[in-house]
């Protein structure tokens, strides 16, 4: 069955599975599911992305393509004063994100959105994403360019990508959309990248 986690309504039968991990001293518990990326575990890319985030984050933060919620909920746990938004096109993912946020006491905003399509003129201090590589380069590059449009001056896009799935060309593309783009981490076959928008003049 061709049931991709970036489709709106997964056709696979729901098979919930528990997942637990700690982030910056906070113990977190999640329910994951079939038809949603990384059922039953925190995937390596997302773990490396979370570990590479700055020591302090504040303001309005978007978890783009949130899946069952590991990034947005972890960020809210670590920096409770941040305003965290979580968006995904996958309705099953959003349902679990909302449930997992309540379970972990994380007051976040969840909404259905294909990329930035439902975000209107919202702008953010940071956008964080483990992009759906299998959706294709055209889709994820559009996400990156639209992220630049939805960041405040001086804001950052944080993302993770496998080296063998085009990390080097991705970095070059980001350099055309942002004032700067640099690797924060290179381990486990992944690159964690920060692309920064120019500050206000």
Structural class: alpha/beta
Number of strands: 9
| Main beta sheet strand tally, sense and closure | 7 strands, mixed
What is the assigned CATH homologous superfamily? Vaccinia Virus protein VP39
Shape: globular
Query: Average pLDDT, to the nearest integer?
Result: 93
The residue fraction in helices comes out at 25-40%
Please name the CATH topology: Rossmann fold
Strand content: 25-35%
Uncertain spans, ≥5 residues at pLDDT below 50? none
Text of the CATH class: Alpha Beta
> What is the rounded distance between the termini?
51 Å
Oligomeric form of this entry?
single chain
**How many separate domains make up the residues?**
1
Number of helices: 5
Main sheet: strand order: 5-4-3-6-7-9-8
Provide the succession of SSEs.
Answer: EEHEHEHEEHEHEE
Radius of gyration: 16 Å
Corresponding CATH architecture: 3-Layer(aba) Sandwich
For this entry, give a set of tags.
201 residues, alpha/beta, Rossmann fold, seven-stranded mixed beta sheet, two-stranded antiparallel sheet, 5 helices, globular
């Amino acid at each position: 069955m061709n049931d991709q986690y970036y489709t709106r309504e997964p056709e696979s039968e729901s098979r919930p599975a528990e997942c637990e991990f700690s982030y910056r001293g906070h113990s977190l518990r999640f329910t994951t599911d079939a038809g949603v990326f990384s059922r039953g575990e925190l995937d390596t890319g997302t773990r490396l992305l979370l570990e590479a985030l700055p020591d302090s984050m504040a303001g309005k933060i978007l978890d783009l393509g949130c899946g069952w919620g590991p990034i947005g909920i972890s960020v809210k746990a670590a920096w409770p004063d941040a305003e965290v938004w979580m968006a995904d096109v996958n309705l099953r993912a959003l349902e679990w994100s909302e449930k997992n946020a309540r379970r972990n006491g994380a007051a976040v905003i969840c909404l259905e959105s294909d990329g930035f399509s439902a975000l209107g003129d919202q702008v953010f201090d940071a956008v964080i994403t483990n992009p759906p590589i299998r959706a294709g380069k055209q889709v994820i590059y559009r996400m990156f360019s639209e992220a630049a449009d939805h960041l405040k001056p001086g804001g950052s896009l944080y993302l993770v990508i496998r080296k063998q799935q085009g990390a080097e060309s991705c970095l070059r593309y980001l350099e055309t959309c942002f004032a700067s783009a640099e690797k924060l981490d290179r381990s486990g076959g992944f690159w964690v990248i920060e692309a920064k928008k120019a500050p206000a003049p």
